[in-house]
Structure formats: C-alpha cells, structure tokens
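input
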Amino acid sequence: MTEQFADLHLHTVYSDGSSTPAEVVANARTFGFSAISIVDHDTIQGIPPALAECRAAGIEFVPGIELSSNDSGGTVHILGYGIDWRDKVFCEFLEEMRKNRLERMEKIFKKFQALGVTLDLSEFLLAGQQGTVGRLHLAHFLVGKGIVADLAEAFERYIGDGKPAYLPVDMLNPREAVEMIRRACGVPVLAHPGITHRDELIPRLVSWGLMGIEVYYSKHLPEAIQHYRKLAEKYGLLVLGGSDCHGAGGKGESLIGTVRLPYEYVEKLKVAIEECLTNGHH
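output
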C-alpha cells in the first residue's frame, strides 16, 4: 500500500481563491492527494461541485468551511470539517453573513466616493463571484480599474486596517464560530495558529468545544509545527493540516503540494466527524 496524503485547507473562487472546484480537484490529482477539503471563507457554495469532481476523480472529499471570527485580540479563523452543509439553520446563518459582507461593501464604496474615487458597485459584484465578497476581491477590482498599481497598494492606501476606506467586517466571536460548527455537526479546528499568534486563546477555545489544531501549514516553520504538536497533545486535540492554497492568482503562488498531511490524521478526523454525527447537535 503506497502512502497516502491529504490537503485539508484549499480555497476556490467561491471565496478568495482563483481556482474553480474542478481546477482544485485536478491539481489535487496531479499532486497525488487521496483526500482533500475545500474550506472557503464563510460559504459552502463550493462544496456541491467539489464533491461531484472528487467522486469522478476518485479522491476522498471532506466538506469544510473556514469561519472568520474576531475578538478584542484580533482575528481568529476556525475551520469546520464534516459539517452538515445542508443544515437549514447553518445555511440561514451563512446567508446572514453574506448579507452583512454585502452591506459592508456598500459602505466601503461610499467611503471611496467621499475620497473622490467613483466606483460602480454593481460592476464590482458582477466581476466578483457568487460566494463571499471581501477585501481581496476589492483590491483586485481596484488594480483592474487602474486606481492602484498592485494589491499591496490597495491595502496600503485604501483598504488595509485603519486606512481611509477600511471598515471592519461584523463578525462572530471565536466562541460563536466554534459553537456554530458544532451545531452543524462539524469538527471545529483552529486555523494557522502560527500566523495569528493567539495561543493564549487555545485553552478557552477547547473549553468552548474546539476539537483540533492546524499543526501542518504552508507557513509554519519546523519549530512552529513542533510547538503546536505539543499543544495538540496537551489538550487532546486532533492534529490537522493543509496548504491554504488560493490558486495561482489569489494570493500569489499556488501552494498546493507544499503540505502533505499523512492519511492517518484524516482517519482520526473521520472518527471524530462520525462521533459528532452520532451525538448530533440538532
């Protein structure tokens, strides 16, 4: 039996990735992955097409999502694996989030207007995807309009934290994100802890129902991997991982293939998903 690997952190055009679900699955196949998960930000719209593509390609698919949350200390991303993505309450909640993001965009466009930059919101929304709209989409739009030279300038001049056209997104707090995933019979996992540096939050997240931690990650150095493995052991958390690939056009180079999570971790995750379903939170 040849060794099998997974990448459990991939994005598509339905959030801030540049690849369609079909392209993501084709890439996963090229890199020889036997299991993948698509975890688009605050949306499950990429799941049905990805599921169909994976079936056709003979790749195991774990439905997932990445929920954005924040508290006074900053942003915390919680991954949800094995969620019941057809759950009515969960879908209504995501729809509410989508509306919030849309309203936020309208307000940001008004800020641009006040700065003397006229942008057409309907044109932006047409250019954008059906999924969640965020600042990265807007940055690409500004580049396309010739208002800024590149993505960095868009954030630096206009939409970065605290810049003239910045508006925080009205988000959940980390506890709500964990509880929402548990409610949808999913396994909540802390995303890229080595990037967000919120270790002090881990014990509380565990008390709220966190079940795993993203130990293997494209930007985690070996010492970070070791550090989070130890924390996972300490709190009895699942060890998970993925590349956080957004495709070649999303956030720079394509990262698929940079993280190869041994399949044994997928098996442990599947056991946990099964338990969540059995203990159903409906």
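quick obs: The two ends are 39 Å apart (CA to CA).
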